[in-house]
Amino acid sequence: MAKIIPFRGYRYNPDVVGSITDVVAPPYDRVYPDVQEERLNASPFNIVRIIKGLSEANDSSGNNVYTRAAECLEAWLKDNTLIREDEPAIYAYHQTYEFAGQKLTRKGVIALGKLEPERVHAHEKTLRGPREDRLNLMRATEANFGHIFMLYNDPERTTENALGNLISSETPIIEAKDADGNLHQVWRITDEQLIGTVQEALSDKDLYIADGHHRYETAVNFMQECEQAGWTPAADESFGYRMMTLFNVSEPGMSIRPIFRLVHGVEGFEADAFLQAAEERFEVTAHETFEEMAEATHAGRAAHTVGCFTSAGFHSLQIKNLSSMDELIPDRSVDYRQLDVSILHAGILEPLLGIDAKALEEQKNVTYTVDPKKGISAVKQGDEQIFFFMNSTAADEVIRVADHGEKMPQKSTDFYPKLLTGLVLTKMEIAK
């Protein structure tokens, strides 16, 4: 069940940093090198300096991206670049954006959530590298910067109704835009009765991680390290709680984009031979253009169709017999076996291309993109061998798989838009 509490968060001081848009950033895993450079150039106070700083040639155990992140955080706390709230609060967080031709608003609540991994449902596998990276940053800074994007289901929409009057009558304390022009707004809620209403509404709800699996696992690992060291929380804002943003799947505005796969480094790969081998389990149809392939993939959603671009052109692959997945993944639930991403991984990547779970874990042969143009271009230029175009995973699929205690393959969902890092921060209080 969800136990949340208010907290005295830290926020950027606009008198020091100016535009909040210039100091926020996407989640660390979306801070690609070009994004990193752009955000660092946007402001000397951009949060990327902490969450994903630049490596240097003379880095050592005593001077590296993590130690510099800690030094930067301490400097910003001392010179009031970051200021702490006077009283505990939770925050309403709205994201207004356009998706599939519609203008939508996704509404969430930022709070500290108790770390109870046995009661929180994860739906994706994590990778060792990002886990170690985030743990090193947490050890150095003892702070939370990014959000854990949590889902819950409340058809009564109790939280949204309770906060509606306040939001409609008050000006947000934070407004910022992301790189796509989406508007992010935050309202501070300090009224104890209103906070209590939200806590009660969430108290009997299961939580599902939508985004931030590595961050959640890192928080749990750090908590266990602290407990093993004999450290104790000096306040609620410590290692037993983690900053989360909770969204109701029954509230309008929830959008998920597909994450496409790019395959490279498969020895002896020949496109025609691959397509011929795929015909054993899939109906393989050739298309003249990307648009035709995309249309066939979308139209074949219920039949589990995947698009494919290689040097042999555009094709769509539709599984002939869904029961064949029972043989390929016998130890998983029907809900898991019928995910498009499961069909791609177990029905194509492993048996036809030799890309097994170990290769995926080690990130040897597969990279990811949400931009089909980039994927097609990479194949045309010879940097990648295959671009797989997919339909998005639905929110109810995420919840059903998580309810089985199963985890989807990594990068199965892309909840859009991403939550901005740097809107609110927390610093742990630990008695050592």
Summarize the topology.
Elements (H helix, E strand, L loop, with lengths): L3 E2 L4 E3 L1 H4 L15 H10 L5 H4 L13 H14 L3 E3 L5 E10 L2 E13 L5 E2 L6 H14 L1 E2 L3 E5 L5 H12 L4 E4 L5 E7 L2 H11 L4 E5 L1 H16 L3 E2 L7 E8 L6 E3 L2 E4 L7 H8 L3 E6 L2 H10 L5 E6 L2 E7 L4 H5 L5 H4 L2 H14 L3 H5 L4 E4 L2 H9 L5 E4 L5 H9 L10 E3 L9 E2 L2 E2 L1
Parallel strand pairs: 6-11, 8-13
Antiparallel strand pairs: 1-5, 2-3, 4-5, 4-10, 5-13, 7-22, 8-11, 9-10, 12-23, 14-21, 15-19, 15-20, 16-18, 17-18, 17-20
Helix pairs in contact: 4-5, 5-8, 6-7
What's the helix count?
Answer: 16
Rg of Cα set: 23 Å
How many domains is the backbone divided into? 2
- Judged by helices, strands and strand pairing, the structural class is alpha+beta
Q: In one word, what is the shape?
A: globular
Which stretches of 5+ consecutive residues score pLDDT under 50?
A: none
N/C terminus separation: 29 Å
**Helix share of residues?**
25-40%
Mean pLDDT: 93
Q: What proportion strand? A: 15-25%
- Strand tally, please? 23
The major sheet is characterized as: 9 strands, mixed
Q: What report would you give on this structure?
A:
By secondary structure, this protein is an alpha+beta fold. The protein has 2 domains: 4-255 and 417-431, no CATH class; 259-391, Conserved hypothetical protein from pyrococcus furiosus pfu- 392566-001, domain 2 (2-Layer Sandwich), CATH 3.30.1760. It has 16 helices and 23 strands. The protein has helices at 14-17, 33-42, 48-51, 65-78, 128-141, 158-169, 192-202, 213-228, 271-278, 290-299, 324-328, 334-337, 340-353, 357-361, 372-380, 395-403; strands spanning 4-5, 10-12, 82-84, 90-99, 102-114, 120-121, 143-144, 148-152, 174-177, 183-189, 207-211, 232-233, 241-248, 255-257, 260-263, 282-287, 305-310, 313-319, 366-369, 386-389, 414-416, 426-427, 430-431. The strands form 6 sheets. Strands 1, 4, 5, 6, 8, 9, 10, 11 and 13 form a 9-stranded mixed β-sheet that branches. It has a 6-stranded antiparallel β-sheet with strand order 16-18-17-20-15-19, with helices on both faces. The longest helix has 16 residues, at 213-228.
